[in-house]
Amino acid sequence: MVGRIPGPICFMTDEGIDEGTLSRTRMPTPETSGTHTLTPVKSKRQLTDTEKKLVADVKNALQEGLAPIIPIKSGAYWVTWVENNAKNSRKMSELNTAFKANAEAFIKALEDAGATVKIRNTKRSAKSAYLFHWSWKIALGKCKASDAEKMAGVDIEWDHGDDEKSKSAALEMVTGFGLAVPPQSTDAPSLTSNHIAGKAIDMDITWTGTIKVKKKDNTEVSVIYMANVNANTVLHTIGASYNVIKRTTDAPHWSVNGG
Ligand SMILES: [Zn+2]
Q1: 134, HSE (Cβ side, Cα atoms, 13 Å)
Q2: In 3D, which of 215, 244, 208 has the Cα closest to residue 92?
Q3: pTM for this model (two decimals)
Q4: Which of 48, 130, 196, 204 is the least buried, fewest Cβ under 10 Å from its Cβ?
Q5: 200-206/220-224 β-pairing
């Protein structure tokens, strides 16, 4: 394409431009410097045979779900990952129907007696249970990063090739997930947790002094507040009357069978 474009950008010679005003002191000769030949953008080059084969291979692999997976190292990234991919719930509505009714009745009895109940967790995804379990064990030195099992759909690399790095990355996850650690909980979060089936609830139950809580049979039981809920056997007995069973090694945890 051939055309003439007026203005300062047309004239690159040293003979015509006053840059301050854009005025010319001399017009260029039309046939030479004022005339532009605009060549079309070159069309894309053709792929080589090797490149074509590579593209075809990647397409096929993606279609068949065989794309190579590059694991992402453990650390805070996985806290966000859980939020986006394996979110846990604190809603009562996510619980197993029968356990939900029992837990609600127990909580109502506690609240009627003047206790404050703060629900921390109800239903947990199996994927987050996996991340909770291994991050807890590695961070607390209960196992080596290389001992962690794999789980389909959770492409995490626990082993940073250095024990201290692996431990501190796992600890970032334990902290980010807000997992209970010793002395509050001496159990690693379970891979087969009752939370996965919606049959467990984590809650903080607090009150001041002594309250009278109704058991399921409507008898009232006086129960003194203890900072260590795991030791408060009277409270456990009240929960048990509703079939909400305390696990005595895990402060916030109550479930269908104590597991
Ligand atoms: Zn729990």
Answers
A1: 23
A2: 244
A3: 0.64
A4: 48
A5: unpaired
User: For the residues of 188-214, what is the DSSP string, one character each?
Assistant: PPPTT-TTTTT-EEEEEEE-SSEEEEE
> What's the rounded Cα separation, in Å, for the pair 77 and 169?
10
Distance of CA 200 from the midpoint of ligand 1 (Å): 6
Query: In whole angstroms, what is the distance from residue 222 CA to residue 210 CA?
Result: 6
Question: What's the CA-to-centroid distance between 20 and ligand 1, angstroms?
Answer: 75
CA separation for the pair 122, 140 (Å, rounded): 24
* Nearest residue to 125 (alpha-carbon basis) of 196, 52, 210, 36: 196
Architecture of domain 77-255: 2-Layer Sandwich (3.30)
In the reported structure, the alpha carbon of residue 239 is separated from the centroid of ligand 1 by a whole-number distance in angstroms of: 15
Task: Write the pLDDT tens digit of every residue in 131-155.
Answer: 999 999 999 999 999 999 999 999 9
Query: What spacing in Å lies between the alpha carbon of 1 and ligand 1's midpoint?
Result: 74
Instruction: Compute, in angstroms, the gap from residue 121 CA to the centroid of ligand 1.
Output: 7
- Alpha carbon distance, N-terminus to C-terminus of the chain: 80
Cα of 256 vs centre of ligand 1, distance in Å, is: 11
In the chain, where the domains are located: 77-255
CA of 131 to the centre of ligand 1 (A): 14
Among 168, 143, 148, residue whose Cα is nearest residue 158? 148
Which pLDDT does position 216 carry in this prediction?
98
Compute the distance from residue 224 Cα to the ligand 1 centre, in Å: 23
